[in-house]
Design goal:
34% of the residues lie in helices and 18% in strands. The protein contains 10 helices and 12 strands.
Length: 285
């Protein structure tokens, strides 16, 4: 019989967060508006963390990249990160990528994430421009796996899949279509750490673990996934806690010069009380 889980409904930074507390620890459900993540998959991931915990790690520290969403990137450039990820909302963001390259120099890897916002021809044009800037990876330039395969075959830089892979069937399709060079893994959309490990094995390409801007509890699950992968060739996108205005632990899960160390996250009782739904009225679903 499964142990009963305690469920904590919170508002953290204006965002709805549910924490599950169980015999193995804490799990987090924190959906992002307009980002594809099935609620039942997020709940499975949280139950795994709370009920049975995470697989044994094969590494205790994980290299991570900085995240750039706008022109304020100087801190990221100087913080010792081995890689920088730039969000691309329009093709015009190539100019921002050029600014980032000038700031970080040739020794820092740059990745660009378009979140499936481009069509095939635009993606190929942008990929050509990014190749001139030494970008190492173009993440989800188009929405579907079939279009991703077309772009990958003609792109001068490697292509990563994220939103287009949410199941084992998607992972098999990625492998059959040869749609990507790299697979982005997020714990909540894939239904947990173990499910994500299986999907990565099926896909048969290198994996990068990234967050969904969770609290330190949710990011700890992503760190556990990165720590359990048999191979980890790239820095992971898990250095996101610093961008949150609020958290539910006293010692936040933050990187030190581009490295995050695996550790268990236990929420602070006072912070749980402060951010409980009963104490808040503005919730973003």
């Amino acid at each position: 019989m499964r142990a009963e889980l305690a469920e904590h409904h919170l508002v953290v930074g204006g965002r709805a967060v549910t924490l599950l507390e169980g015999p193995a620890g804490w799990g987090e459900i924190s959906l992002v508006p307009d980002y594809p993540c099935a609620p039942d998959a997020a709940r499975r991931a949280a139950r795994e963390a709370a009920e049975i915990g995470f697989p044994p790690p094969v590494r205790t520290a994980v290299m991570v990249n900085a995240l750039v969403t706008g022109p304020d990137f100087v801190a990221a450039a100087l913080a010792g990160f081995p890689a920088v990820k730039v969000k691309m909302t329009t093709p015009a963001a190539v100019a921002l990528v050029a600014q980032v390259r000038a700031a970080v120099g040739p020794g820092v890897a740059i990745r660009v994430d378009a979140n499936g916002s481009l069509d095939v021809e635009t993606a190929l044009q942008v990929a050509q421009q990014l190749s001139l800037l030494g970008v190492e990876l173009f993440e989800q330039p188009v929405a579907s796996l079939s279009d991703l395969a077309v772009v990958r075959k003609r792109s001068p830089i490697p292509i990563a899949a994220d939103e287009s892979v949410r199941s084992e069937a998607d992972a098999r399709a990625l492998r059959e279509l040869e749609a990507a060079d790299v697979l982005i893994l997020k714990v909540q959309p894939l239904g947990g750490v173990r499910a994500a490990l299986t999907i990565a094995e099926i896909a048969g390409v290198p994996a990068i673990v990234t967050s969904m801007m969770e609290t330190s509890v949710g990011v700890a699950a992503g760190l556990a996934l990165a720590a359990a992968l048999p191979e980890l060739a790239y820095p992971c996108g898990l250095a996101t806690v610093a961008d949150l205005s609020e958290d539910i632990v006293n010692k936040r899960l933050l990187p030190e010069r581009g490295i995050m160390r695996v550790r268990k996250m236990i929420p602070d009782a006072d912070l749980l009380a402060r951010y409980s739904v009963a104490a808040n009225h503005s919730v973003i679903s």
